Amino acid sequence: MIVVNDNLPTSMLLEIKVGDTIGNDEGISGVVVNIAIQETDDFLMLIFGLQEGGQIMTKKLRQVC
Which has the closest alpha carbon to 55: 35, 38, 25? Predict the structure, then answer.
């Protein structure tokens, strides 16, 4: 199981695919059935839909140089 949180590197979050088992620090876990990515100029929001109907969201701030 992959533990998903805001501290996980973006590259690792982007490697998660449908069928992987994930969980978070709040005790929510399950098999990923869909993945939505929302992008803005400031952040990247990843929303993982779970088989049991729940979802896990994580927000990554964009690095601006």
Answer: 35
In order along its 65 residues, the chain shows pLDDT tens digits of 999 988 899 899 999 999 999 999 999 999 999 999 999 888 999 999 999 889 999 999 877 66
Strand, coil or helix: what is 34? strand
Collapsed DSSP state (helix, strand, coil) of residue 63? coil
Q: How many domains does the chain fold into?
A: 1
Q: How many CB atoms lie within 10 A of CB 38?
A: 11
What is the C-alpha to C-alpha distance for residues 49 and 65, in angstroms, rounded to an integer?
Answer: 32
The alpha carbon dihedral of 26, 30, 36, 39 has a sign of positive
Q: Where are the beta strands (DSSP E) in the chain?
A: 2-3, 21-23, 29-39, 43-50, 55-61
Amino acid at 2: I
